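User: Hand in any protein.

Assistant:
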Amino acid sequence: MTVERWLRLPGKGLAMLRLARGAWGSRVRVWPTLLGPPRALSSLAAKMGEYRKMWNPTEPRNWAQQYRERFIPFSREQLIRLLIQEFHSSPEEKASLEDFSAHVDFCTLFHYHQVLSRLQTLYDPINPDRETLDQPSLTDPQRLANEQEVLRALEPLLMQANFSALSEDALAYALVVHHPQDEVQVTINLDQYIYMQFWALGQRVGQMPRMSSVGSKRGFFTRSPPVERRYFKRVVLAARTRGGHLVLKCFKDTPLEGLEQLLPELKVRTPTLQRALLNLTLFVSGMALFVNVGMVVLTDLKVGTSLLLLLFAALMGLRATKMFGQRRSMQALELAHMLYYRSTSNNSELLSALTLRAQEEHAKEALLAHSFLARHPEAMSGPPQETSRWLQSEVESWLLAQSGCEVAFNGARALAHLQVLTPSIGIYPPPGFPKLDPLASVLPEPPQATPPRSDNL
């Protein structure tokens, strides 16, 4: 249904809510094959085999075309200050922009509350952290169908929150390539998973913040210099293992090569270089022990050479097992601390966080469209397609100049947000809308007098 038809309906102040409700309520008919039958990850395994044959790949194939950053790298308050400096310098224009921002809040708040309520209703039967009474247990096919329903409803919310889905090719690269600077490396068994999907926003290239207090930044012998990495400010994970349940998690400051560290059912692996260094250390120390002690034992105690070699091999085997066990325990602790610092929200709480982020991005897109079209009202005289292309080009250039980040701005969506908001401007708040008092500080209740004690009791 077109925007113009909605604008002709009564109650223009709620036009945007109705239009958005129809868009959000529609089901996404096409879902990636990752949610298909048990062999659905076979294509991912094939792509992983291709990357294993490559010599030192540094990024996924055609990465610039695969991933387009859509996240606006400013908070709404920062964006309003920038827009005031650039477009609304007079007191009247500043007040008008602030009123428009309040109007956007009013119009979107109820809509996104409904979106969150629907998501929570869909997610409640499969919520592993439910604090209410237990419901009848679901069969595995029923649980899988419910999980697919939740992910279908979650996809448009992620799109409005300006997350970008990582392609299967990028996931294959992340599962195969291990960055040499990663202190902890893990491995997974792909056959244990039914599906996995990642969404990311805020791509950065630079030195990553350290996310653990365990261990040190030293290499095996020398201090490892800091290097620039490609990482994301936020990563959302949806994965399910066989016999498990849907895992919904969000992490911060995650490198592209470290995505597999976020998956469930993984094992810590010792890197090849570390294994070689440990084996070399054991071999050198063992040979020194054998030459200094073994020869004395052979001479003085008349112990047979075969028996001595057997005892020596057993001793070195136990020593190697202990050293590798201690190394893996330290790496497992490092991984646990790293995930502790990176994790931002899980399961049901993630739904609330994504809804707030989608509302924030919705408001920022409307503010940008409002300011740019108010400065150039002649841009609205052309066809909607040309207007959206002009708006997209202007906003992308302005964001690049202000932040240094290349952002793919959705001009058509921002223009649709603005068109449904414009007719209702001036009726905020609507007549009869209750105005609640600010929350008063809760005063402590006065202590009740203790009843007199009777000695006759």
Observations:
- The CA atoms of residues 13 and 424 lie 4 Å apart.
- The chain is about 50% helix and 10% strand.
- The first strand starts at residue 164 and ends at 165.
- Confidence is low (pLDDT under 50) at residues 1-39, 213-222, 439-443.
